[in-house]
Each structure stands twice: as structure tokens, then as C-alpha cells.
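Dear colleague,

As promised, here are the two records you asked about, laid out in our usual form so they can be pasted straight into your sheet.

NAME FIELD: protein one
SEQUENCE, THEN STRUCTURE:
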Amino acid sequence: MSDEFTLSIPVRFRDIDRLNHVNNAVYSTYLEEARFAYLESVLDVDVTEFELVIVTLELSFRQPISLDDDLEVAVSVTDLGETSWTMAYEFRVDGDVAATGETTNVHFDPETDCPKPLPTEIREPLLEREPGLEAGSLDENDAS
């Protein structure tokens, strides 16, 4: 990820489980925080009005994250389809990758309960932000 987008996320006491590391369920919340920050920054939108649903979420854990750790999450868009896009995440502590994640996000129309095409005002900034991204690369995986 060149010129990558990163977000520092404080590890809160409530995030810690009985083994004194971040509970696996909390990583989804960290993904959400990083995803929203990325979208607000790149698309200049209010994410509370952004219509998206998550259709896949994957996490892989490499090492535990503790309360005293300085957590940074790197985010990028790796695939862009007609109605959906994939985002990759790296959870880092002191430069070491502690976990990775991936989400497939669908631009969604709540009135029809169906995916809808990504408008130009979303598609173009994503393509500009992620120079290696090819438009339409996710079409075969788009949810419908």
C-alpha cells in the first residue's frame, strides 16, 4: 500500500478479554472505525448517510493486541465492481502485522432492498486514491 491510509485506534479497557488481549469480536468494530474514516476522508461524505452493507467479512489473527499497544489500521480498496468493492485492512502494532481483514461492501438501496450501482462521485475518488485499482474488477462477485 503506497501512500496508504492509516488510522490510529486506541485500545480500550472494554476491548480486552480474560486473556488480557483484544477480544476477537472487537476487531469488527475496529474494521468499522477504519472503514468509516477511510470513506469520510477519500469520498468526503458523511458515513451515517452512506448506503452500504457488508456481505463478507474475513479476519486472520497473527499475534495478540494488548491494552498498552499503539494500534494502527491500514486500509485500502483492492477491488471495485459495479455495485460493490473490497477493502483490505492490516492491524499493526509497532510496525508488525498483528491481524489482517477484508470486507466486501455493497452500495445498497434501502427502498428496493437491492444493490445499486456505485455513482461516479464514489467510483472516481476511489480510483484516484488507489492507483492500481481497475474499475470493474469485482463484477463477477457483485451481490445482487
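NAME FIELD: protein two
SEQUENCE, THEN STRUCTURE:
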Amino acid sequence: MQLPGLDALYDDFKAKGIDEVYCMSVNDSFVMNFWAEKHEIENVKMIPDGSGEFTRDMDMLVWKPAQNFGYRSWRYAMTLNGMEVDRMWVEDGKNQMGLDSDPYEVTKPENILKNLT
């Protein structure tokens, strides 16, 4: 839901001064490219974080044993300004047991867009 939403609102993000929109996931490039193709993503750039190194450095790497997923990224969004984090939106309930319903409210593209200044 998040990726197609970001793609659909791409021009609105650009109109708010956002240079580019990226999607990063703890997956390899094959998964990321297939995901983009399946959802017919035209504008959002895909960035694989196969090892989870970037996600770990952002303190967003979580263990999801309840889903049998292993390590994944907690859902968040951010804007950067000059390679510095300007603002972050992080879903509530971050945990290391997969004891969540994969929350998706704070990081909805519509919410991010309306909170951009």
C-alpha cells in the first residue's frame, strides 16, 4: 500500500519541494525490482538494503520471528536535507518479537504529504 501510494502522489511530493522519492527495504535488488514491476511503479526509486546495514544504523532493524521473516525494517519515512535527516515519521509499537500487526498509519503517503512544510 505504501509504495503504490508514494508513486501515485509523486507529483504532489515534487510540488512540495521534494527532489526524489525512494523506497528502501531489507531485501535484495531482485525482490525490489520485482516488487516495483508488479506494482507498476514509475517514479519511486528502489534501494535494496540486503544486509540491513543502513537500516541497522538508522536503529530501524527489527527481528520478526513471529512471522518467520528474520530481520526486516520497521516502517518509517524520512525527509533529508543536505544528507541530514530533516524529519522522521515512525510507526508506533516497534518491537523485536514481531508482536505487532505491521502498523501503517503514521507513514501513509497522504499523512507525510500533509505534514510537509
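A couple of things worth noting about protein two: The first strand starts at residue 22 and ends at 25. Helices lie at 2-8, 10-15, 29-38, 53-57, 109-114.

Best,
R.
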